[in-house]
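Sample pair:
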Amino acid sequence: MRGLPRDLWILAAAILVNRIGSMAVPFLSLYLTRHLGHDVGVAGLMLATYGAGALCGATIAGRLCDRIGPGRILFGSMLGSGLLLLVYPLLRSVPALAVVTFALAATAEAFRPASLVVVTALAPRERRKPAYAFARLAGNLGMSIGPPVGGLLSELWYPSLFIVEGMTSLLAALLIFASPLRQRSQGLQMEDVPPSVAKLAVARDPVLLALLLGVLLTGMIFFQFDSTLPLYLVRHLDMPGYSFGALITVNTLLIVVVELPLNSATAHWRHAWALGLGAILLGGGFGALALAEGPFSLVMSVTLWTFGEMILTPAATAAIAERAPEGRVGEYMGLHSTTTGLAFMLGPSAGLLVLNRFGPGVLWPCALAVGVVAALIFGTATARLPSPKAAEG
């Protein structure tokens, strides 16, 4: 990351602090059922409400980034979500919980498109892939700390989850407030966007729609990780419950150690190559689970799709950002985040349906097939897009 602006390091620090506190939502269903005494139906309603708020927040935040600047969205997201998290333990009724859950999701998830806009603005075109990977590195480091700490706090006092996450969000807001990031305005020019696309409506841009479809399909594959995969390990392979935690560790360690140098080395790749390879590795890794019989084969499959994730995610973000016309980068990043959220809503439910009705012998080959289809879509959409220049130095 040598040579990148200092503001990018400040943003990474804010992401790290914020993600270290990520512990309330993973334990939300347990908080609602065990601490407040609501039934499982209420917990499901709140999770669905959070998903709806996240989709709305990402879409609206993307457009606001273009109008008032991503720096203000970053600050408002952390300040608003921090205050709402501190209020959350005071709520008891279902209507109040639903309203605040929706507002919390909308404000917290506004951070993602705003941070992507800032990275896009700060990093030179030939360095955007490693810059996105750097932001993801900060998030993954934080996530490796937050949920385990949250598990310990949940054994002591459930409301402490919201208090700790609220304080880390406010700390991230203070970090942004005290830095130049808060004053960053839209003012971003994507010089490589064809003039014919500059004023084109999103619905009439076939390249963007194809990219978003590819993100949706690969996202639905990826989110099998925390939905069908744990059930497959326990029910079908008779693995102990802690085996899923071990696979999470493999995924996280690979991302922390490999993703940044991997994206620095492949920064000059054409988007068609990176997106196609990433989608095939992602689908192939999950498809290989159909042949898994023990720890070694499971680790190999996780390694395969983690490499796909590490190549695909920064490349997809870069391709969508480079498709955005001047003054509309926030809108495009918001659509990117919304599509990822939609994949999170659709992927687990579709995977669980296939697993329960047809079994793993159908589920995992379907993941491979979807990955191949996504690779073809990505390749077709990006075949004529310009390739990034090789990074200097």
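Residues 186-198 have pLDDT under 50 and may be disordered.
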